């Protein structure tokens, strides 16, 4: 058995108070570090599901069959991460690695969990980076600034949308990622609904999750989301979101509505007094967007106006 398999398995089975010690024990092991990097990195995706990796009737793979696209599991991860979509030839190579070249059942189980991002180690990115500094890139998303700390200049054009209640999530490269950078589990239906649209449009969707819906409030070009210098202003992003209204409003997804676009700040108080907003368990106030790009941090182009008793 490859050493990283027993190391990862030890980390998975360790108690909550023991995990940091396991990380410290193997922090210099190259394959252990690579496994953690590709599993926990929220900016990385292999574009595979457990269903895709099931052997079909008549499928057979042996060690004598050559691996062409990659030779190791981590070369496989790097190769898959560069694809726009999965093709049949690549899928066969992944299955060959799993069913023809993996000697142990534990190794196969761990690699399926790695390739599909379903393996749960019970350890956070924050904990991993505390023990092994800088191993996992931090997950950052746009955060709103309270409007009281940054008043809007009179005459400035802005867009108002309701703040949707729920758990923050971002649909990125085929996966829903929570606000703390961890993959969201149990929402495969939503991910399947959105995958085709986002691949076709090279887009990232930002929103909130409830028990039965993903409410989308922003759409970001993939190149902008992955860039330190995004270019696309909110006006363009909102226009694209409005045009995609029919595609993104389904039984499990919806677009947060635009309530106002203009420069009259008196509208804010009038909207905040509406009962459906002030007394709602669904909406928690207003989000005021200026015509700025999507920055993956808190900034003054995205301002929150909360209803009373809601933080």
Describe this structure in words.
It is a single chain. The chain has 311 residues and is of the alpha+beta class. The chain has two domains: 3-131, no CATH class; 143-306, 2-Layer Sandwich (D-amino Acid Aminotransferase, Chain A, domain 1), CATH 3.30.470.30. It has 13 helices and ten strands. A five-stranded mixed sheet has the order 1-10-9-2-8. A five-stranded mixed sheet has the order 4-3-5-6-7. Helix 1 (3-13) packs across helix 3. The longest helix is centred in the middle third of the chain and has 14 residues, at 188-201. The protein is elongated.
The shape, in one word, is elongated
Q: Largest sheet, described in full?
A: 5 strands, mixed
Question: In oligomeric terms, what are we looking at?
Answer: single chain
Architecture per CATH nomenclature, i.e. the level-2 architecture of the largest domain: 2-Layer Sandwich
Q: What is the CA-atom radius of gyration, in angstroms?
A: 22 Å
Number of helices: 13
CATH names the topology of the largest domain as D-amino Acid Aminotransferase, Chain A, domain 1
Q: What is the CATH C level class of the largest domain, in words?
A: Alpha Beta
Q: Strand order within the widest sheet?
A: 1-10-9-2-8
Helix content: 25-40%
Low-confidence stretches: none
Question: Mean of residue pLDDT?
Answer: 91
DSSP strand count? 10
Q: Which structural category fits the helices and strands?
A: alpha+beta
N-end to C-end Cα span: 51 Å
Task: Give a nutshell description of this structure.
This protein has 311 residues and is of the alpha+beta class. It has 13 helices and 10 strands.
């Amino acid at each position: 058995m490859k050493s990283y398999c027993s190391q990862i398995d030890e980390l998975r089975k360790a108690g909550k108070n023991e995990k940091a010690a396991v990380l410290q024990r193997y922090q210099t092991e190259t394959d252990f570090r690579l496994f953690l990097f590709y599993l926990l990195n929220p900016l990385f995706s292999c574009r595979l599901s457990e269903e895709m990796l099931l052997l079909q009737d008549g499928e057979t793979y042996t060690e004598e069959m050559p691996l062409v696209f990659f030779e190791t599991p981590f070369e496989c991860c790097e190769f898959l991460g560069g694809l726009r979509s999965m093709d049949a030839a690549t899928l066969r190579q992944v299955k060959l690695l799993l069913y023809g070249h993996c000697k142990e059942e534990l190794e196969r189980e761990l690699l399926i969990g790695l390739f599909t991002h379903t393996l749960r180690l019970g350890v956070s990115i924050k904990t991993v980076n505390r023990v092994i500094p800088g191993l996992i890139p931090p997950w950052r998303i746009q955060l709103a600034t309270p409007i009281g700390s940054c008043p809007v200049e009179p005459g400035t054009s802005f867009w108002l949308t309701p703040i949707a209640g729920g758990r923050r999530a971002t649909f990125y490269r085929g996966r829903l990622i929570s606000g703390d950078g961890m993959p969201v589990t149990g929402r495969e239906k939503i991910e399947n609904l959105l995958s085709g649209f986002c691949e076709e449009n090279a887009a990232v969707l930002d929103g909130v999750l409830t028990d039965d819906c993903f409410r989308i409030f922003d759409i970001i070009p993939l190149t902008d989301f992955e860039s330190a210098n995004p270019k696309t202003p909110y006006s363009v992003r909102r226009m694209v979101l409005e045009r995609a209204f029919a595609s993104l409003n389904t039984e499990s997804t919806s677009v947060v509505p635009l309530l106002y676009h203009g420069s009259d700040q008196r509208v804010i108080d009038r909207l905040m007094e509406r009962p459906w907003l002030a007394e709602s368990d669904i909406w928690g106030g207003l989000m005021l967007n200026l015509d700025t790009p999507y920055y993956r941090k808190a900034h003054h182009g995205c301002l929150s106006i909360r209803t009373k008793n809601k933080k």
